[in-house]
Amino acid sequence: MKRSRWVLILCIAAAFFLWVVYTLSNEYTAYFRFPLEVETNLDGRANISQADNTLFLRGKTRGFYIIRYSWRKKSPSVKIFADQTLMGKYPDKNDKFFLLADDIHNLVNDALGEDFQVETILSDTIRLEYRQVQSRFVPVQFVSDISYMPQYMSFEPVRAYPDSVLVYAEEPYLDLIREVRTRKVTLNNLDQTVEGIARLEIPANARLSRSEINYEVMVSRYVEMSVEVPVTTRNVPSRRELIILPDKVTLQFRCPFDEAASIGAGDFSLVVDYNEFTGKAGGKITPALEEAPVMISHLQMTPQFVDGIIQNRY
Length: 314
Description:
The chain is α+β, with helices and mostly antiparallel strands. The chain has helices spanning 2-25, 63-71, 101-112, 171-174, 274-278, and strands at 27-34, 36-39, 48-50, 55-62, 78-81, 88-89, 96-100, 116-121, 125-129, 134-141, 144-148, 152-153, 159-161, 164-169, 180-181, 185-190, 194-199, 206-208, 212-217, 220-234, 240-245, 248-256, 269-273, 284-285, 288-291, 297-302, 306-312.
């Protein structure tokens, strides 16, 4: 008898549970309130504003959603992006703007997700504030980790398009922003030129005129070369003679394979300035490289230092 009673109780509990699940799985129409955060693209103004008034709407959703909403102490904000063309401006208030409910119905519906269907937005006008901000162009710093296949490298900096972006921020914050960095781009074992898109890191309390830039990494096959270049002198007084020892040094460098045949000793200029030489206590100096082909890299000079003898002319 007792066993039958327990079986009956378990059956009633299971039936009740199934009824609850079935009931909460159905869709119902209910009223909801949500804080609203609106991002926009107004020129010369902040891009995000929290609405002064709560978003009050009627919508259809499942019972589970309604129960979950009722139990929350604080409703999560609904975040939407509204183009500046939808913004209305209060004529007597400098930073005050508004949105009409009819204009954001679909935006709010999309923001709430597939489990919620907005029927009516009862808040007729959404009041917003977008303060004026300053702006200026700052350079883009391309952040990367690049490796190359053997005998390949880049002979010029990574090209960024554009190389600067417009930053919007209130004056105290704008003064602190000197550059905008990209997210780190990792490229491995390159053996040809690569193009891509890099996302920008948005500085705190600021917004950017764009969220990404294009980049190009110029990759070339290289060869290692060496040439013997004479060392010349400059600013030697008319009654003095500066003799350089040795009078020629060897330059070792890398250059693009396609340009190797056109590079020779005549493309380089090594100079020792008389005034700089006499100011050296040790009597040795590194010749200044004043001319060299643009597309060379990893330049080494042998020997690195030269001696000099000063003689009088008669």
